[in-house]
Design brief:
alpha+beta, single chain, 8-stranded mixed β-sheet, binds flavin-adenine dinucleotide, 20 strands, 6-stranded mixed β-sheet, globular
Length: 391
């Protein structure tokens, strides 16, 4: 088999890259360990930045999102017994976020790729990649019991945080890892319930952080800060609802409860791998970086990376111009580190740290008051939350 760009991973990064390349007339093959059903049913992220929705609309995969997604023009910060709204739209020059679940984005991209004759191999196993420093790299994998070999010009490592492609870059000589582990995690639930709030609520409380989010009119996503070693089995439904109410109720929010159908503990870490390229390999999305979910940046960064990579590959195939490919890491990392900063900032402003003193808690409240009462503070949050323009 032969293609121009071999893409490892059919998440947001891999599928969007394949879609963008196709629109330029560049061939790709996407492979993934998971089945199509698994990819289309796993509920993960749900907040799309303005740039992500603009790109989906501009490239013809935004119809269902426009119909079923919810455009949010604001978010709420709950602290000191009150809810303070930040008007994202006013404070970002007319930008907003759209709540539309990641697995629905993936359904849209898969449907479009297949309708366009795209080649996606689901449910493969045993991926290996060779020849990255030559001009004919190969990806090999097992599909339907047979080992297959895919020869390509470039390999896109879009294989998420469980990546194998990142480790093809020798550590130390080529690759440097920047890593931060946080001393807490998020306990996340999915519940069959109506939304508790028209817009998301990020709550600071003496008991720790909580987030009231949504995925659809009938499915709600709620999180609260917990110890990383928390066992979901120790948390019956009643205890979960009581804990969430204790964290946001004091600010005046009423939580609508319902049947909890998923519980899990989401570990908190920040990670960046530099560089994001090696020979003919280009990393994109979670394969190269992870952010804590507080800023809702993971999916959006994956899309922003491949937006840059698509243009760089386009310049190569149109004019054999390698300038944008050579500059890929440098271009992408600017946004990645801005998102790392924003995610870390939101995390540190809203969470309770074990060693926090009275001074730290009062400083957090003062910071939240600055953000909600100062137009400059609100603008900083709104511009970053709705997302920097795509490069
Ligand atoms: C529970 C949860 C909630 C989240 N909430 C948010 C949120 O609210 N906002 C936000 O922005 N982000 C959120 N995220 C993060 C967001 O989902 C990720 O940042 C996003 O999925 C990254 O996309 P990706 O394409 O880089 O990687 P992924 O979506 O992880 O896709 C990688 C794909 O590669 C495949 N793969 C892995 N290894 C191989 C291999 N060896 N061979 C072939 N295929 C392989 C995997 O099966 C997978 O399908 C959340 C994540 C989780 C887990």
């Amino acid at each position: 088999m032969r293609t121009q760009v071999g893409i490892v991973g059919a998440g947001p990064a891999g599928l969007m890259l394949s879609h963008l390349l196709h629109q330029r007339g560049i061939d790709s093959v996407v492979i993934d360990l998971k089945t199509r059903e698994d990819i289309e049913e796993t509920i993960k992220a749900g907040v799309l930045e303005q740039g992500t929705t603009d790109l989906m609309n501009a490239t013809g995969v935004g119809d269902r999102m426009r119909r079923d997604g919810f455009v949010h023009h604001g978010i709420n910060l709950a602290f000191s017994g009150a809810i303070h709204r930040i008007d994202l739209y006013e404070n970002s020059g007319g930008r907003a976020v759209t709540v539309y679940p990641q697995h629905e984005v993936l359904k849209d991209l898969i449907a479009r790729r297949l309708a366009d004759g795209g080649d996606i191999r689901f449910g493969i196993s045993d991926t290996t990649v060779d020849g990255l420093t030559g001009d004919r790299p190969t990806i090999s994998f097992v599909a339907e019991g047979q080992r297959q070999q895919l020869e390509c010009d470039f390999v896109a490592g879009c294989d998420g945080s469980q990546t194998c492609t990142r480790f093809l870059m020798p550590e130390g000589t080529i690759r440097t890892d920047f890593f931060r582990q946080y001393p807490f995690a998020w306990f996340g639930i999915l519940a069959e319930a109506p939304p508790s709030s028209d817009e998301l609520i990020y709550a600071h409380s003496d008991r720790g952080f909580a987030l009231i989010s949504t995925r659809s009119p009938s499915v709600q996503r709620l999180y609260f800060q917990c110890d990383p070693a928390t066992d979901p089995a120790d948390w019956p439904d009643d205890r979960i609802w009581e804990e969430i109410a204790a964290r946001v109720g004091t600010a005046g929010a009423t939580i609508k409860t319902g049947k909890i159908f998923a519980k899990g503990v989401l570990q908190f870490r920040s990670y960046v791998c530099e560089p994001m390229q090696y020979g003919r390999l280009f990393l994109a999305g979670d394969a190269a970086h992870t952010v804590p979910p507080t800023g809702a940046k993971g999916l959006n960064l994956a899309i922003a990376d491949v937006h840059v990579l698509d243009r760089a590959l386009g310049a190569y195939y149109e004019a054999r111009d390698t300038g944008l490919l050579e500059a890929y890491t440098q271009t992408v990392l600017k946004r990645v580190w801005r998102a790392q900063h924003f995610s870390w900032w939101m995390t540190s402003m809203l969470h309770r740290f074990a060693e926090a003193t009275g001074f730290d808690l009062r400083r957090q409240i003062a910071e939240l008051e600055t953000i909600t009462s100062s137009p400059s503070g609100s603008r900083l949050l709104a511009e970053n939350y709705t997302g920097l323009p795509l490069t």
